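INFO  loader      accepted 1 record
INFO  loader      residues=341
INFO  predictor   begin
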Amino acid sequence: MPIATPKQFADMLDAAQKGAYAYPAINCVNLTTLNAAMKGFADSKSDGIIQFSTGAGQFASGLNHKDPVTGVIVLAEAAHRLAEQYNVLIALNTDHCQPQKAASFLDPLLDATEARRAKGENNLFQNHMLDASALPLDENMEISKKYLKRCADLEVILEVEAGVVGGEEDGAAGTEDTPEEHLYTTPEDMVAVHEALAEIGRFTFAATFGNVHGHYKPGAVKLRPEILKEGQAAVQEKYGQDAEFDLVFHGGSGSLLEEIRETLEYGVIKMNVDTDTQYAFTRPVASHIFSNYEGVLKIDGEIGNKKVYDPRSYLKKAEENMAARTAKACEDLLSTGKSIL
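INFO  predictor   done
INFO  writer      dumping tokens
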């Protein structure tokens, strides 16, 4: 099945909202991680989301160029071909893009989708994130309105964020010392976001409730999921039940399962997964190197063992383990067995 069409992606979000589950959004950087994410979704019979950051694009374009747009387009085009092998729906998203990068990153990607549509082809991406959360909310909404208008014209859903996710990951906003009060979106903020954007087009909203990028021991991150409930209630009280947000959960590593599941009750339909799948990918590679040390390295003039220093020998293990971690994310988010295809 090819990558989801705009209508299929909208149907995915509707089904998750109605069914109180969410899709893992797996960050990928190369063909092996793409295959791992798709295998995880397919093995779980779950639809899902694959996303690329600007850093992933730089990596994929090669060290001589480090061009995020070229790299992300290459990854997305590869995903379109690879997805044809599977029987679940997969949508493509770009992760955090700050306003200062938008003209050089989001605009060319939207141009690429526009060019595909002119040829009668599916959108290159179904979803893009504009992360203007470091700006005051009024400035955030002004630039968000501009990009939501263009996205709506192309049947692309825009992801916006208000409030700051703490920590730092692949250039995402926030630092380890972000003031605590900035980690929580207020009900007033959520009402303001609805009022600014709802009439323009469909969007998803990364409201913050104490989430922090990076890796932490379970229970170390102090989440307050009730903030999402309170914000949804404030918006729906003023604008009706149809005003419910499609919410996105960033920075979920270290969250307790009961906290993750609680957010599903309050409208979270997408949860980003990066730190945990990075570790799942790298852990078997490390085991392979340590277990085959004399074969991987040519020690004291020996010739080593080609079978164990062949990159495929350890990348297959990495793919398998990352796929298993993707499947666990599906289970945690209750999307297992719920493909709408």
